[in-house]
Amino acid sequence: MSAGLLIKTAGLHVDGAFDFNNYPLPTPTALFRLPSGHRLAYDEYGNSSGYPLFYFHDSGSSRLECCFFHRSAKKQGYRLIAIDRPGIGCSEYYSYQSAREFCRQVVHLADDLGLAEFGVMSLGAGGIYSMTLAHLVPARVQLQLSIAGVPGNVFNELNSGSYVASCIDELAPTLIKLMVRIKYCLFPDNPAATFERLQEYLSYTDRKMLANPGVQKILALDQQETIRSGCRGMAQDLGICFRKLDFSLREIEVPSVIWQGTADRLSQRSNCEYMVSHMPRASYYRVPNRGHFFFIQSMDDVFYRLRHSCEISHAIAA
Protein backbone atom coordinates (compact mmCIF):
# COMPACT_ATOMS: atom_id res chain seq x y z
CA MET A 1 0.00 0.00 0.00
CA SER A 2 1.30 3.46 -0.88
CA ALA A 3 1.92 6.22 1.66
CA GLY A 4 -1.27 7.83 2.92
CA LEU A 5 -4.13 7.61 5.35
CA LEU A 6 -5.15 4.10 6.33
CA ILE A 7 -7.81 4.21 8.99
CA LYS A 8 -10.10 6.95 10.28
CA THR A 9 -11.36 6.30 13.80
CA ALA A 10 -12.39 8.26 16.89
CA GLY A 11 -9.70 9.90 18.99
CA LEU A 12 -9.83 10.85 22.66
CA HIS A 13 -11.19 14.35 23.13
CA VAL A 14 -11.74 15.89 26.53
CA ASP A 15 -14.57 18.36 26.06
CA GLY A 16 -16.56 19.06 29.18
CA ALA A 17 -17.27 16.31 31.71
CA PHE A 18 -15.80 12.95 30.75
CA ASP A 19 -15.93 9.64 32.56
CA PHE A 20 -12.54 7.89 32.46
CA ASN A 21 -13.59 5.04 34.75
CA ASN A 22 -12.72 1.77 33.04
CA TYR A 23 -12.23 3.64 29.79
CA PRO A 24 -10.32 1.46 27.29
CA LEU A 25 -7.24 2.73 25.49
CA PRO A 26 -8.62 4.71 22.55
CA THR A 27 -7.85 4.08 18.91
CA PRO A 28 -6.12 6.94 17.09
CA THR A 29 -7.83 9.33 14.73
CA ALA A 30 -5.81 7.91 11.88
CA LEU A 31 -2.84 5.77 10.92
CA PHE A 32 -0.46 7.12 8.30
CA ARG A 33 1.72 4.82 6.23
CA LEU A 34 5.21 6.17 5.64
CA PRO A 35 7.14 5.55 2.41
CA SER A 36 9.11 2.95 4.39
CA GLY A 37 5.89 1.03 5.04
CA HIS A 38 5.78 1.76 8.78
CA ARG A 39 2.69 3.33 10.30
CA LEU A 40 2.44 6.44 12.46
CA ALA A 41 -0.62 7.02 14.64
CA TYR A 42 -2.00 10.47 15.32
CA ASP A 43 -5.00 12.16 16.90
CA GLU A 44 -6.51 15.50 15.99
CA TYR A 45 -7.73 17.90 18.68
CA GLY A 46 -9.17 21.39 18.80
CA ASN A 47 -10.85 23.00 15.79
CA SER A 48 -10.72 20.80 12.67
CA SER A 49 -10.78 23.89 10.44
CA GLY A 50 -8.39 25.92 12.59
CA TYR A 51 -4.74 26.85 12.13
CA PRO A 52 -2.70 23.58 12.13
CA LEU A 53 -0.08 22.88 14.80
CA PHE A 54 1.86 19.62 14.85
CA TYR A 55 2.09 18.58 18.51
CA PHE A 56 5.16 16.75 19.89
CA HIS A 57 4.50 15.04 23.23
CA ASP A 58 6.97 14.99 26.13
CA SER A 59 9.36 12.09 26.67
CA GLY A 60 7.60 9.23 28.46
CA SER A 61 4.21 10.28 27.06
CA SER A 62 2.03 9.68 24.02
CA ARG A 63 -0.33 11.52 21.68
CA LEU A 64 -3.02 11.35 24.41
CA GLU A 65 -1.15 14.04 26.35
CA CYS A 66 -2.51 16.52 23.81
CA CYS A 67 -6.08 16.07 25.07
CA PHE A 68 -5.23 18.59 27.83
CA PHE A 69 -5.12 21.27 25.12
CA HIS A 70 -8.26 20.26 23.20
CA ARG A 71 -10.82 22.59 24.75
CA SER A 72 -8.66 25.73 24.57
CA ALA A 73 -7.46 24.93 21.04
CA LYS A 74 -11.06 24.51 19.90
CA LYS A 75 -12.06 27.78 21.52
CA GLN A 76 -9.16 29.76 20.10
CA GLY A 77 -9.21 28.24 16.61
CA TYR A 78 -6.27 25.83 16.48
CA ARG A 79 -6.10 22.37 14.93
CA LEU A 80 -3.70 20.16 16.89
CA ILE A 81 -2.18 17.11 15.21
CA ALA A 82 -0.58 14.93 17.89
CA ILE A 83 1.69 12.12 16.67
CA ASP A 84 2.84 8.98 18.48
CA ARG A 85 6.54 8.60 17.81
CA PRO A 86 7.81 5.16 16.63
CA GLY A 87 7.06 2.35 19.10
CA ILE A 88 4.89 4.60 21.29
CA GLY A 89 1.12 4.16 21.49
CA CYS A 90 -0.22 2.89 18.18
CA SER A 91 2.76 3.87 16.03
CA GLU A 92 4.82 0.97 14.70
CA TYR A 93 8.30 0.63 16.10
CA TYR A 94 11.25 1.22 13.83
CA SER A 95 14.77 2.27 14.59
CA TYR A 96 15.84 5.84 13.89
CA GLN A 97 18.94 7.71 14.95
CA SER A 98 17.97 11.36 15.30
CA ALA A 99 15.12 13.84 15.69
CA ARG A 100 15.90 15.06 12.18
CA GLU A 101 15.25 11.60 10.75
CA PHE A 102 11.82 11.45 12.40
CA CYS A 103 10.95 15.02 11.39
CA ARG A 104 11.44 14.09 7.75
CA GLN A 105 8.60 11.60 8.26
CA VAL A 106 6.42 14.35 9.74
CA VAL A 107 6.99 16.35 6.55
CA HIS A 108 5.54 13.39 4.61
CA LEU A 109 2.47 13.51 6.85
CA ALA A 110 2.13 17.26 6.33
CA ASP A 111 2.26 16.71 2.57
CA ASP A 112 -0.42 14.04 2.79
CA LEU A 113 -2.66 16.34 4.83
CA GLY A 114 -2.18 19.09 2.27
CA LEU A 115 -0.48 21.46 4.74
CA ALA A 116 1.95 23.71 2.92
CA GLU A 117 2.45 25.83 6.05
CA PHE A 118 1.87 25.06 9.72
CA GLY A 119 3.13 25.66 13.24
CA VAL A 120 4.71 23.34 15.78
CA MET A 121 3.91 22.90 19.46
CA SER A 122 5.60 20.81 22.13
CA LEU A 123 5.71 19.96 25.81
CA GLY A 124 9.06 19.51 27.58
CA ALA A 125 11.51 17.25 25.77
CA GLY A 126 9.17 17.07 22.77
CA GLY A 127 10.66 20.47 21.94
CA ILE A 128 13.68 18.65 20.52
CA TYR A 129 11.46 17.56 17.64
CA SER A 130 9.59 20.85 17.20
CA MET A 131 12.84 22.83 17.05
CA THR A 132 14.34 20.32 14.63
CA LEU A 133 11.32 20.52 12.32
CA ALA A 134 11.45 24.33 12.44
CA HIS A 135 15.12 24.15 11.47
CA LEU A 136 14.54 21.49 8.81
CA VAL A 137 11.76 23.27 6.86
CA PRO A 138 11.80 26.95 7.94
CA ALA A 139 9.85 27.95 4.82
CA ARG A 140 6.91 25.84 6.01
CA VAL A 141 7.01 26.21 9.82
CA GLN A 142 5.54 29.60 10.68
CA LEU A 143 5.69 29.51 14.47
CA GLN A 144 6.91 27.43 17.37
CA LEU A 145 5.19 27.12 20.75
CA SER A 146 7.15 25.45 23.57
CA ILE A 147 5.55 24.52 26.88
CA ALA A 148 8.15 24.16 29.70
CA GLY A 149 11.21 24.39 27.46
CA VAL A 150 13.54 21.44 26.82
CA PRO A 151 16.34 19.67 28.75
CA GLY A 152 19.34 22.00 28.95
CA ASN A 153 21.95 19.34 28.18
CA VAL A 154 20.82 19.13 24.54
CA PHE A 155 22.06 22.57 23.48
CA ASN A 156 25.09 22.11 21.26
CA GLU A 157 26.39 25.54 22.32
CA LEU A 158 27.09 23.96 25.73
CA ASN A 159 29.20 21.18 24.21
CA SER A 160 32.86 21.67 25.05
CA GLY A 161 33.82 20.07 21.76
CA SER A 162 36.24 17.72 23.49
CA TYR A 163 36.70 14.10 22.49
CA VAL A 164 35.32 12.95 25.86
CA ALA A 165 32.23 15.14 25.52
CA SER A 166 31.61 13.77 22.03
CA CYS A 167 31.90 10.20 23.27
CA ILE A 168 29.47 10.86 26.11
CA ASP A 169 27.00 12.40 23.67
CA GLU A 170 27.18 9.31 21.47
CA LEU A 171 26.93 6.82 24.34
CA ALA A 172 24.19 8.54 26.37
CA PRO A 173 21.23 7.60 24.12
CA THR A 174 22.30 3.95 24.08
CA LEU A 175 22.73 3.86 27.87
CA ILE A 176 19.37 5.57 28.43
CA LYS A 177 17.62 3.04 26.19
CA LEU A 178 19.30 0.15 27.98
CA MET A 179 18.41 1.42 31.46
CA VAL A 180 14.78 2.07 30.54
CA ARG A 181 14.34 -1.40 29.06
CA ILE A 182 15.95 -3.09 32.08
CA LYS A 183 13.84 -1.01 34.47
CA TYR A 184 10.56 -1.88 32.72
CA CYS A 185 11.45 -5.55 32.46
CA LEU A 186 12.33 -5.88 36.13
CA PHE A 187 10.01 -3.29 37.68
CA PRO A 188 6.84 -2.82 35.58
CA ASP A 189 5.24 0.51 36.33
CA ASN A 190 1.72 1.34 37.39
CA PRO A 191 -0.02 4.72 37.46
CA ALA A 192 -0.40 4.85 41.24
CA ALA A 193 3.32 4.31 41.80
CA THR A 194 4.16 6.95 39.20
CA PHE A 195 1.95 9.55 40.89
CA GLU A 196 3.52 8.81 44.26
CA ARG A 197 7.05 9.28 42.91
CA LEU A 198 6.04 12.40 41.03
CA GLN A 199 4.70 14.03 44.19
CA GLU A 200 8.23 14.17 45.61
CA TYR A 201 9.40 16.57 42.90
CA LEU A 202 6.35 18.77 42.41
CA SER A 203 5.52 22.18 43.82
CA TYR A 204 2.43 22.67 45.96
CA THR A 205 0.43 24.07 43.06
CA ASP A 206 1.26 21.02 40.90
CA ARG A 207 0.40 18.58 43.69
CA LYS A 208 -2.95 20.32 44.03
CA MET A 209 -3.50 20.09 40.28
CA LEU A 210 -2.72 16.39 40.20
CA ALA A 211 -5.08 15.73 43.09
CA ASN A 212 -7.90 16.15 40.60
CA PRO A 213 -9.20 12.60 39.81
CA GLY A 214 -9.93 13.55 36.21
CA VAL A 215 -6.36 14.71 35.65
CA GLN A 216 -5.02 11.54 37.26
CA LYS A 217 -7.11 9.38 34.94
CA ILE A 218 -5.90 11.21 31.84
CA LEU A 219 -2.28 10.85 32.94
CA ALA A 220 -2.84 7.16 33.73
CA LEU A 221 -4.29 6.57 30.25
CA ASP A 222 -1.37 8.41 28.71
CA GLN A 223 1.13 6.30 30.65
CA GLN A 224 -0.59 3.06 29.62
CA GLU A 225 -0.71 4.20 25.99
CA THR A 226 2.99 5.08 26.00
CA ILE A 227 3.98 1.45 26.59
CA ARG A 228 1.01 -0.17 24.86
CA SER A 229 3.42 -2.17 22.65
CA GLY A 230 6.23 -2.44 25.18
CA CYS A 231 8.98 -0.13 26.36
CA ARG A 232 11.45 -0.10 23.48
CA GLY A 233 9.72 2.80 21.72
CA MET A 234 9.82 4.95 24.85
CA ALA A 235 13.43 3.92 25.51
CA GLN A 236 14.46 4.91 22.00
CA ASP A 237 12.59 8.20 22.26
CA LEU A 238 14.26 9.09 25.56
CA GLY A 239 17.64 8.43 23.98
CA ILE A 240 16.86 10.78 21.09
CA CYS A 241 15.38 13.47 23.36
CA PHE A 242 18.62 13.72 25.35
CA ARG A 243 20.97 13.75 22.35
CA LYS A 244 22.51 17.14 21.62
CA LEU A 245 20.98 19.13 18.79
CA ASP A 246 22.89 18.94 15.51
CA PHE A 247 22.40 22.66 14.88
CA SER A 248 22.65 25.91 16.80
CA LEU A 249 19.66 27.60 18.41
CA ARG A 250 20.76 30.73 16.53
CA GLU A 251 19.76 28.99 13.31
CA ILE A 252 16.08 28.73 14.31
CA GLU A 253 14.59 31.72 12.53
CA VAL A 254 10.86 31.14 13.02
CA PRO A 255 9.00 33.14 15.71
CA SER A 256 9.14 31.09 18.92
CA VAL A 257 7.24 31.43 22.18
CA ILE A 258 8.19 29.64 25.41
CA TRP A 259 5.83 29.33 28.38
CA GLN A 260 6.62 28.06 31.87
CA GLY A 261 5.07 28.20 35.34
CA THR A 262 7.06 30.12 37.96
CA ALA A 263 6.76 27.17 40.37
CA ASP A 264 7.89 24.55 37.85
CA ARG A 265 10.30 22.10 39.47
CA LEU A 266 10.48 19.63 36.58
CA SER A 267 11.99 22.00 34.01
CA GLN A 268 14.62 24.65 34.64
CA ARG A 269 14.02 28.37 34.22
CA SER A 270 17.67 28.73 33.19
CA ASN A 271 17.10 26.39 30.22
CA CYS A 272 14.18 28.50 28.99
CA GLU A 273 16.16 31.71 29.42
CA TYR A 274 19.07 30.16 27.56
CA MET A 275 16.80 29.28 24.65
CA VAL A 276 15.35 32.78 24.48
CA SER A 277 18.77 34.43 24.59
CA HIS A 278 20.08 32.31 21.71
CA MET A 279 17.04 32.12 19.40
CA PRO A 280 16.75 35.21 17.17
CA ARG A 281 12.96 35.60 17.39
CA ALA A 282 11.99 34.10 20.75
CA SER A 283 9.90 35.41 23.64
CA TYR A 284 9.38 33.99 27.12
CA TYR A 285 6.28 34.05 29.36
CA ARG A 286 6.13 32.89 32.97
CA VAL A 287 2.78 32.07 34.60
CA PRO A 288 2.70 33.33 38.22
CA ASN A 289 2.00 30.82 40.98
CA ARG A 290 1.71 27.89 38.60
CA GLY A 291 3.90 24.81 38.21
CA HIS A 292 4.86 22.41 35.45
CA PHE A 293 1.22 21.55 34.80
CA PHE A 294 0.10 25.17 34.44
CA PHE A 295 -1.24 24.31 30.97
CA ILE A 296 -4.17 22.37 32.43
CA GLN A 297 -5.78 25.67 33.44
CA SER A 298 -3.97 28.38 31.47
CA MET A 299 -4.05 27.39 27.79
CA ASP A 300 -6.83 29.85 26.91
CA ASP A 301 -4.41 32.67 27.65
CA VAL A 302 -1.50 30.93 25.88
CA PHE A 303 -3.44 30.40 22.63
CA TYR A 304 -5.05 33.84 22.81
CA ARG A 305 -1.69 35.58 23.14
CA LEU A 306 -0.25 33.44 20.37
CA ARG A 307 -3.01 34.52 18.01
CA HIS A 308 -2.63 38.21 18.94
CA SER A 309 1.16 38.34 18.92
CA CYS A 310 2.27 41.11 16.55
CA GLU A 311 4.94 38.90 14.98
CA ILE A 312 2.82 35.76 14.66
CA SER A 313 -0.75 36.92 13.99
CA HIS A 314 -0.09 37.78 10.33
CA ALA A 315 1.21 34.26 9.67
CA ILE A 316 -1.85 32.65 11.25
CA ALA A 317 -4.23 34.98 9.46
CA ALA A 318 -2.61 34.20 6.11
Tags for this model:
disordered N terminus; alpha/beta; 318 residues
Any chance you could write out the topology, listing elements then pairs?
Blueprint: E1 4-8, E2 30-33, E3 39-46, E4 51-56, H1 70-76, E5 78-83, H2 99-112, E6 118-123, H3 127-136, E7 141-147, H4 163-186, H5 191-199, H6 204-210, H7 213-226, H8 232-241, E8 256-261, H9 269-278, E9 282-287, H10 295-307, H11 313-317
Parallel strand pairs: 4-5, 4-6, 6-7, 7-8, 8-9
Antiparallel strand pairs: 1-2, 2-3, 3-5
Helix pairs in contact: 1-10, 2-3, 4-8
Q: Would you write up a description of this structure?
A:
By secondary structure, the protein is α/β, with parallel strands linked by helices. It has one domain: Alpha/Beta hydrolase fold, catalytic domain (Rossmann fold). Helices cover 39% and strands 17% of the residues. It is globular. It starts with a strand and ends with a helix. The N terminus is likely disordered.
Describe the structure concisely.
By secondary structure, this protein is an alpha/beta fold.
**What's the average pLDDT?**
83
The CATH class assignment is Alpha Beta
Low-confidence stretches: 1-11, 14-22, 159-187
Largest sheet: 9 strands, mixed
Strand content: 15-25%
Distance between the termini: 35 Å
Order of adjacent strands in the largest pleated sheet = 1-2-3-5-4-6-7-8-9
Order of helices and strands: EEEEHEHEHEHHHHHEHEHH
Query: What is the CATH H-level superfamily?
Result: Alpha/Beta hydrolase fold, catalytic domain
CATH architecture: 3-Layer(aba) Sandwich
Number of strands: 9
Domain tally: 1
Structural class: alpha/beta
| Number of H- or I-type helical stretches | 11
| Overall 3D shape | globular
Rg estimate, integer Å: 18 Å
Fraction of residues in helices?
25-40%
Q: What is the fold named in CATH at topology level?
A: Rossmann fold
